[in-house]
Amino acid sequence: MKITIGKKLTTGFIIVISLLIAMSVIAYLSLTKIKMSTDILQYYSEKLERTANLRYPLLEALVINDFFIAGDLQKKDYFDLLYEGVEKAINDFNEVELDEEENRLFRKLKTGFAMVKQKSDEITNIADITQKGFLTPEINELVEEVDSYAVIVIDSMEELHDLIKKRLNEVTTEAEEIKKRGIKVTVMISIITIILGAGIAFVLTMNITNPIQSLVLATNRIARGDFDYRSDIRSGDELEDLAHEFNDMAKKLKISYSHLEEKTRELEQKNKEIESLVSMVSHDLKTPLISIGGFASLLEKTTKDFISPKSKNFLDLIKKNTRRMEVLIQDILKLSSISNLIEFSENINSKDIVNEAINIFQVELNEKRIKLKVDDDLPGIYCDSKWIGHVFTNLINNAIKFMGNNPSPRIKIGYKENEDFYQFYVEDNGIGLKKEFKEKIFDPFQRIHTEKNIEGSGMGLAIVKKIVEIHGGKVWVESEEGKGSIFYFTLPKKRYR
């Protein structure tokens, strides 16, 4: 059964949420128990406080009553006053919820204290009627009864007080245990939830990231040319489907690459055949051209005393076009065979290459008063110095040839740097280019300008383009008619081949 990534993530999310809910429920139950124990603790604390509020006036009343029944009649009024306080305390204590044992002791206490009051009143009545004071046998008997009831009241009061205090201590201990147990359970559940949540997150993450890393590895291997490498992913989701598609693509890519290699070999063979043909044709063409030029020069020399100006002009035209054809054939040979001639060397200072190119045109630069500026910090490059020198030579030559009549002619050579390439440029303020020429000037046999006094075969920039491309760069121009031109070309920072 296929489990999609969405289902995996949803399942993991549900499990984590369930763990969080379970933790919350357990924490809630623990807090509820703690609150209940706290409420019970507060209940017994209030009950003990009510017991104390009853105990102190009750004991004081009994003490005063002892003085009264012993013959101190002045304590009678104070006892009656205290009795009212005790009655109020008893009524307050009636509002407290008591269990069966507590209720038995409280009733015994109330009954005993009521009998104390009743017997004390009887003693007062008999003493007032007989006028014999407290020395009669009858009063002595009542005093004994009062004492016995007072003992019952005190015992019941102390027993009730001790019972409630004992239960308060028990509840306090139990509340502390519940609190500790609740905290312990909550902490344990929290730790378990965090561990399980982290484990689930880790498993889900590995289940997704491992296949992705496997695909990245496969992509890198394929990119390095290992077309036999296959990605083995068995995750049971879309990533496994993606791996199958990737493997199919790699298989097709291997077939395509094999076909491409075959076509490349065929193309290389064709290029060699074309280069051989061009070389043979060029040599075959150069021979008659040399003969034509030589015969024209010989004819001019032998007829110089009687040749007409018109005929001499024809001979000059023949020699000029013959030389032009020789240059054109030489450039065609150069363009066709340049890829076999370029040899990369170690890192070379491009400033030295530029200086050698400038030295070729030093006379023309001085004659035309062209101000030439070269950046001081030109970088080191991996290249064939001879052919990159040819690039600079051609671009500088073009800048000089197409300077026009600018009163302040200038040429600037410099470079810019980006992450992977050095971008060189040759800038001039000459006559510039028409817009339609900017794309065509790097094609073979394209001349920038057609003025008869400007020489050229139309192959120079095509050769420049071929040299730069073989070095792994590209070349282009930015120009506006009447405002000069900037020719750019790039070379890789790292060794290209």
Structure explained in plain terms:
This protein is α+β, with helices and mostly antiparallel strands. The protein has ten helices and seven strands. It has a five-stranded mixed beta sheet with strand order 2-4-5-7-6. Strands 1-3 form a two-stranded antiparallel sheet. β4 and β5 form a beta hairpin.
Q: Could you give a short description of this structure?
A:
With 497 residues, this protein is an alpha+beta fold. Helices cover 70% and strands 8% of the residues.
Structural class comes to alpha+beta
Order of helices and strands: HHHHHHEHHEEHEEHEE
DSSP helix fraction: 55-70%
Largest sheet: 5 strands, mixed
Percent of sequence in beta strands: 5-15%
Q: What general form does the structure show?
A: rod-shaped
In the predicted model, the low-confidence regions spanning at least 5 consecutive residues are none
Strand order of the largest sheet: 2-4-5-7-6
Number of strands: 7
Rg:
59 Å
The overall pLDDT, averaged over residues, is 79
N-end to C-end Cα span: 51 Å
User: What is the overall number of helices?
Assistant: 10
Give the key terms.
alpha+beta; 497 residues; single chain; 7 strands; 5-stranded mixed beta sheet
Helix-strand blueprint:
Elements lengths: L4 H65 L5 H20 L5 H31 L6 H87 L14 H65 L6 H33 L5 E3 H11 L1 H6 L3 E4 L5 E3 L2 H17 L8 E8 L3 E8 L31 H11 L4 E5 L5 E8 L5
Parallel strand pairs: 2-4
Antiparallel strand pairs: 1-3, 4-5, 5-7, 6-7
Helix pairs in contact: 1-2, 1-3, 1-4, 3-4, 4-5, 5-6, 6-10, 7-9, 9-10
